[in-house]
Amino acid sequence: MPLTSLAPNLMVDDVARTVDYYRRVLGFDFAMGVTDEGRQAVFAWPVAEPLCYAMVVSGPVQIMFQSKKSLAAELPSLENAKPGGAFTLYIECDDLDARYAALDEDTAFLKRPHVTFYGMREFYIKDINGYILAFAQKAA
């Protein structure tokens, strides 16, 4: 029985600030969010109220963000967890150079564009929550 998709749900301190970063810096689109008070779904950006959850998309790539308070309420074992993680999100794209050029000088680069032994061009950044994102494209 095959799996059909994967959308990571990342714990963050400020959902709206994270969405703004992913939109402005990384070129994602806002798909939807849920307000912290009242748990109302919202589908337009910017939002007027604090969010406890949101999803951003870019092509088939989806990333969800959930506030620490909200996520710990659903999964109490995460109560003492901190945003960030010891993993990378590996995202393939069709124009690595354009994606790299679109990033601003405040981007926390961990590794600049390079060609790997396995035939990919990649670069690594750290987002505003401490998550590591790898962007990659097949090397020519």
How would you characterize the overall build of this protein?
This protein is of the alpha+beta class and 140 residues long. The protein has 2 domains: 1-75, 2,3-Dihydroxybiphenyl 1,2-Dioxygenase, domain 1, CATH 3.10.180; 84-140, 2,3-Dihydroxybiphenyl 1,2-Dioxygenase, domain 1. Helices cover 17% and strands 39% of the residues. The chain has 3 helices and 9 strands. It has helices at 15-24, 68-74, 96-102; strands spanning 9-12, 29-35, 41-42, 51-58, 61-67, 88-92, 108-115, 120-126, 132-138. It has a 5-stranded mixed beta sheet with strand order 1-5-4-2-3. Strands 6-9-8-7 form a 4-stranded mixed beta sheet, with helices on one face. The radius of gyration is 16 Å and the shape is globular. The mean pLDDT is 95.
User: Radius of gyration over alpha carbons?
Assistant: 16 Å
- Give me the count of strands: 9
CATH class identity of the largest domain: Alpha Beta
Number of domains: 2
Mean pLDDT: 95
* Uncertain segments: none
Major sheet, described briefly? 5 strands, mixed
Distance between the termini: 35 Å
* CATH superfamily grouping of the largest domain: 2,3-Dihydroxybiphenyl 1,2-Dioxygenase, domain 1
